[in-house]
């Protein structure tokens, strides 16, 4: 008790000492009082500023925490073996691999539905029947057909005979007319869309050099077709599209690679009428005025049909090449394609899968970007990573074409419905559809191959991969030796038998 009292007295005496020191300092230096007052004034302000700074730090910390949680969710959604550190964590490696595999299986199922959904197993039957109908049909009381035609006069008889009859079939087999007037139907099931078109390309009479030995006897020389030197001058009657040249841009036609040469998309063309009598008159006028002559190098027969039972368009392009040798070379393209994609309930299910396919593409694009950001240029060393990029790029092209085709088909069909007597140019769409089928088939193939990427942790698959990797150099060396011998024999066959045997007539057919 005495001790506490003495301490209290000591403290009071110390305070008194400080007060006395303050008074003495104030007497010696009055400015000291102002400094003390100023510090006492700003002290509360510093305290408030400290609290404000602390609040801002807490807010920034909360925002940073939210962003961290968001980025963590993103990384978790796109976590792969390349974005996570799985080198020393076997459990994490298996977890991410299985997760990638499950997502990829769903992607693969969606891709298969998109690829096989529009496919009709009866497409070949339609193509085969159209081929037989136009290429094998024979002239009445004769044996000539388009597939056996060897001269221009036989070609005319086939066009004016069985081909015309197939185009303008308005009656049943008992001569009873169809219920719908002007409904041009092929094989009783396929409707002619628009009108047929005949188009030819020509070479001029001075398109090749005549040897001096025959210069007096031979005045005209029609050379082999070359698009750069094709004849574009009016000929014959010199009026109308059949006798004057029209460019490919105006026609909207594409180049064609035939058996003899490649041909441009322009030419001299005649669109036939939907009335059989008038169409026959048009063909007769062309026949009488020698529309096809020595200058003709190729004749294209274009038309399109639609089968409502199968919802398939048949875009037909019959090509009769007339080489400088004087014979006829027949080639044809019967493209049966499904251009109206969304009609039945199953078609709309496929549409839903196509939308899901777009989401998968977006998902894998983000995944590849994250992996490239994580790995850098090392990412492109792996074959599997390159395969991923190829699949994504082809998938983007297929998805873009799907959207483009839907828009173009709608616009084209509306134009045809308003102008049924005009030619329906489905050539571009059919070609792109065939290319789309080719692209989607490659995507399906690569997608199935990519499965090996996700099952590589299996011991058997690891051994298989290592075996193939070990013998890769030997296989490459053997392939080089094989192709050297193979192409040597191909050149031998082409040079020795190219003038006699059809299978050796060109180096491509030999290979």
UniProtKB/TrEMBL annotation:
GO molecular function annotation: calcium channel activity; calcium ion binding
Transmembrane segments: none
Lipid bilayer topology: Multi-pass membrane protein
InterPro entries per record: PKD1_2_channel, PKD_2, Polycystin, Polycystin_dom
GO CC aspect terms: membrane
Taxonomic superkingdom: Eukaryota
Record carries keyword Ligase: no
Key words of the record: Glycoprotein, Membrane, Transmembrane, Transmembrane helix
One Pfam short name: Polycystin_dom
An annotated GO BP: detection of mechanical stimulus
UniProt record similarity statement: Belongs to the polycystin family.
Name of the protein this chain belongs to: Uncharacterized protein
UniProt organism field: Schistosoma mattheei
């Amino acid at each position: 008790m005495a001790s506490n009292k003495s301490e209290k007295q000591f403290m009071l005496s110390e305070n008194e000492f400080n007060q006395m020191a303050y008074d003495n300092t104030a007497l010696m230096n009055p400015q000291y009082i102002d400094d003390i007052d100023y510090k006492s004034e700003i002290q509360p302000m510093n305290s408030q500023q400290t609290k404000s700074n602390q609040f801002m730090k807490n807010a920034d910390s909360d925002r940073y925490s939210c962003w961290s949680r968001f980025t963590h969710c993103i990384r978790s959604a796109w976590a792969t073996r390349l974005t996570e550190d799985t080198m020393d964590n076997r459990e994490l490696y298996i977890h991410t691999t299985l997760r990638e595999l499950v997502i990829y299986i769903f992607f693969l199922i969606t891709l298969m539905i998109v690829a096989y959904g529009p496919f009709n197993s009866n497409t070949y039957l339609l193509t085969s029947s159209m081929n037989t109908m136009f290429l094998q049909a024979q002239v009445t009381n004769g044996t000539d057909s388009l597939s056996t035609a060897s001269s221009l006069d036989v070609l005319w008889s086939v066009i004016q005979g069985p081909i015309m009859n197939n185009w303008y079939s308005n009656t049943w087999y008992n001569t009873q007319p169809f219920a719908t007037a002007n409904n041009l139907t092929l094989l009783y099931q396929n409707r002619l869309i628009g009108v047929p078109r005949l188009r030819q390309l020509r070479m001029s009479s001075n398109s090749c050099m005549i040897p001096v030995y025959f210069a007096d006897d031979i005045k005209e020389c029609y050379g082999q077709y070359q698009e750069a030197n094709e004849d574009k001058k009016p000929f014959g009657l010199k009026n109308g599209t059949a006798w004057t040249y029209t460019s490919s841009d105006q026609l909207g036609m594409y180049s064609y690679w035939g058996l003899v040469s490649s041909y441009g998309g322009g030419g001299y063309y005649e669109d036939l009428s939907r009335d059989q009598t008038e169409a026959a008159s048009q063909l007769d006028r062309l026949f009488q005025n020698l529309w096809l002559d020595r200058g003709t190098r190729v004749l294209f027969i274009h038309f399109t049909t639609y089968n409502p039972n199968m919802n398939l368009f048949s875009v037909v392009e019959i090509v009769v090449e007339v080489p400088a040798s004087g014979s006829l070379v027949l080639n044809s393209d019967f493209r049966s394609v499904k251009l109206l994609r969304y009609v039945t309930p199953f078609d709309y299910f496929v549409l839903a899968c196509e939308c899901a396919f777009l989401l998968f593409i977006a998902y894998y694009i983000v995944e590849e970007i994250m992996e490239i950001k994580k790995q850098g240029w090392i990412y492109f060393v792996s074959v599997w990573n390159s395969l991923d990029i190829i699949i994504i790029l082809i998938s983007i092209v297929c998805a873009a074409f799907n959207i483009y085709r839907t828009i173009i088909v709608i616009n084209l069909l509306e134009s045809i419905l308003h102008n049924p007597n005009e030619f329906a140019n489905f050539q571009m769409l059919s070609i792109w559809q065939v290319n789309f089928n080719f692209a989607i088939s490659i995507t399906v193939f690569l997608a199935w191959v990519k499965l090996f990427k996700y099952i590589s942790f299996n011991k058997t698959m690891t051994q298989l991969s290592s075996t193939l990797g070990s013998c890769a150099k030997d296989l490459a060396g053997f392939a080089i030796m094989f192709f050297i011998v193979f192409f040597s024999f191909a050149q031998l066959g082409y040079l020795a038998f190219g003038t006699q045997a059809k299978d050796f007539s060109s180096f491509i057919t030999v290979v």
